[in-house]
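Researcher: Good morning. I'm working through a list of sequences from a screen, and I'd like to move beyond sequence-only analysis. For each chain I'm collecting a predicted structure so we can compare shapes side by side. This is the next one on the list. No need for commentary yet; just the structure.
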Amino acid sequence: MIGLMLIIHPMTLSSQTGKLKNVELTMSGSDPNLIDAKYNIDLAYNHETTKNMASMWGWRGVVYAMIAASNDNEVKSLNTDNSAALISGQSFVNYFTFPENEQKKFSALDYASAYVVSAIIDCFNEGVSASMDKGKFSTVKQYMDIVETLLVYDKEEKLKGKISKEKALLITWQSAYNDSLVDQEMIYLQKLIDIPNYMNSYVFVRMSEIYMNQKNYEKAVSYLEQGRTKIPSKASEFLNQQINIEIERNNIESLIVKFSEGIQNDPENKEYYFSRGVAYHQLKSEERNKQELAIKNGENPSKEKYYFNMGLKDYAQAIKLDPGYTDALNNEAILLLDSADYIYKLRTRVSSSEYSKYDKLSINLYQQVVQKLVALYDMNYKKDQDLVELLKSIKSIYAKLNDEDNRLKYDTLYKQEKKKLD
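Model: Good morning. Structure tokens for this chain:
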């Protein structure tokens, strides 16, 4: 019995590898024919025998990199869907996963090493362009992941100072930020934070903001501490974010510590003085309310820990640094008014022999307050309901000072503004 022998015809394999040889020959000349090269490499890409060959991926990357970079109108017609840069980048990513001996076949390595830089540039530019629009995060990520992967094959560092892993990650993060993809933001921020020589303070601040918004204050602070350790020259930026965290969780006493730290580092910063004044003002108001409640309940009020002059000193310093600082002028007047009202109430709680002393002190404070409030009115600082409340306070103070003329004057203005608002 004669046995049957299975015969494999070599024609299929040789004809397809011939396509790769044709690409090699077409591209190695001084004037490569990209139309023919694309035709042949597409055939090789779509055939079972060559689609997983290293040289196919390498030449595909080269051909499509040249198409993406070409300004020739005929070549541009090969890239009507603007996919050439992406195809080139993806092809090179696949190509460089193969062993070097496979990469060298059909002269692919020499050309791939030369044209991978062009692919990186085109993918980077496409990613940057996509990042300009919302809703394009996945596209941006696709391009920038390719850039990050291929940069290690820029052996001659032609892109140094122009395109980097850090830039690719930053643009991807910005796209996630624009699309409100917080989980993706965190991934790329952490990648940037993990780069030892990356010194952008904002990545730490933004990560802290994310955790603050999630009410994870300890984690938020930990990123600020990491940033402060890594980039001590940006301490003020980390301090400002930590102040935001303390405001968010209403940790007023800690806020005062942070504002004091800010003042120590930047004694000419009016905002720090103003903000610390606000913190002292709030603590004093809370303390006074607790004392009033204790007295109302027949209990002994707690011993004073905060004083009006703590806030007044800070407001005064902010005004000294900026005489036109209307917010500080306003708060100074309000704090003085709180102090005057407090002493005015005390008259009924002290002995008759001390009544006169507290009465004179309250009158003196009211005189100071009304001058400051009138100045704010003259500056047109308040509008609408705030203006109505300002005039109401002015007329009330003049009533306590027994200044009937001014009381009538500001009562009339108060009624006029209230009528407008109504």
